[in-house]
């Protein structure tokens, strides 16, 4: 694969995804029992916003850096921003290197918790190992994340979160891979929380995946952030996440910050946000 997240680190999609991730992990931390965090497409862990890739696209300027200049952020967005800055902030709180999901998750792991991090690309996996500094709570696997769900689940911990955040280079074919992996994962670890990130270009491409999720025999909450209308296949108009087995009242928690994220990050007044139950028991 040619995808490198360094070109997109800290963009609006990262703000959305990582605010959701922190909220889900905080919900797991609310109970004393150990949990396991599983990341199928972990990436390199830390991204230099002054590097060549980030400088070329400057996507962080319309993402996390907009929040730095904002006043009166909702609590969840403040928490997200503080955790990002705590990992590697420069003088005056400037964000120099942006943390990926593994580093944000590690900051929320307790002594009894564990993480399984999968990354197929060798250089990215090597960088992730360096970023985690040999943390014994984190197991890094250089392997296909979808296959790992079939091989490594369930972990010893009964509770946990699986983040599926693929590059979607396969376009519609990515949904087929996700569905195949999730079907087995649900059977092996039915009580886990599953968060599946997806890009939004044209709405029609997402409809079959949502239809499939309605048959998952579990509660499914969908959150979406659109910075442009969802009818152009030529750009990333927004992104969404389907959350299977969401924590109690997690929809209310997301509703507290998602409208503000849209207000701060949308490039087009015709953009929007969405929060909907696909299935609720």
- What is the approximate shape? globular
CATH topology: Rossmann fold
Number of domains: 1
CATH superfamily: Vaccinia Virus protein VP39
Mean pLDDT: 92
**Global Rg:** 17 Å
Order of helices and strands: HEEHHHEHEHEHEHEHEEHE
| Class from secondary-structure proportions | alpha/beta
| Proportion in helices | 25-40%
**CATH class descriptor name:** Alpha Beta
What attributes does this structure have?
alpha/beta, Rossmann fold, 10 helices, about 40% helix, about 20% strand, globular
Describe the structure.
With 281 residues, this protein is of the alpha/beta class. It has one domain: 3-Layer(aba) Sandwich (Rossmann fold). 38% of the residues lie in helices and 20% in strands. The protein is built from 10 helices and 10 strands. It has an 8-stranded mixed sheet, sandwiched between helices. A two-stranded antiparallel ribbon has the order 2-3. Helix 6 links the parallel strand 4 and strand 5.
């Amino acid at each position: 694969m040619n995808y490198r997240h360094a070109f997109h680190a800290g963009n609006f999609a990262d703000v959305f995804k990582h605010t959701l991730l922190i909220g889900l992990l905080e919900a797991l931390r609310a109970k004393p029992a150990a949990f396991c965090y599983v990341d199928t497409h972990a990436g390199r862990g830390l991204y230099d916003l002054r590097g060549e890739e980030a400088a070329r696209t400057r996507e962080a300027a319309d993402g996390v850096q907009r929040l730095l200049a904002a006043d009166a952020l909702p609590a969840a967005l403040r928490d997200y921003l503080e955790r990002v800055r705590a990992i590697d902030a420069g003088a005056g709180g400037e964000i120099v290197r942006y943390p990926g999901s593994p580093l944000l998750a590690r900051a929320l792991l307790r002594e009894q918790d564990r993480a399984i991090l999968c990354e197929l690309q060798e250089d990215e996996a090597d960088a992730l190992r360096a970023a985690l500094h040999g943390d014994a709570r984190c197991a890094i696997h250089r392997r296909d994340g979808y296959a790992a769900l079939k091989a490594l689940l369930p972990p010893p911990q009964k509770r946990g979160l699986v983040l599926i955040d693929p590059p979607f280079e396969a376009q519609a074919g990515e949904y087929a891979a996700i569905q195949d992996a999730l079907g087995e994962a649900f059977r092996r670890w039915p009580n886990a929380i599953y968060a599946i990130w997806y890009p939004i270009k044209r709405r029609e491409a997402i409809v079959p995946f949502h239809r499939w999720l309605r048959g998952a025999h579990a509660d499914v909450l969908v959150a979406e952030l659109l910075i442009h209308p969802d009818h152009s296949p030529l750009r990333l108009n927004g992104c969404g996440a389907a959350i299977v087995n969401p924590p109690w009242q997690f929809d209310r928690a997301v509703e507290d910050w998602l409208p503000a994220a849209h207000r701060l990050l949308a490039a087009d007044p015709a953009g929007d946000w969405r929060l909907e139950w696909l299935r609720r028991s």
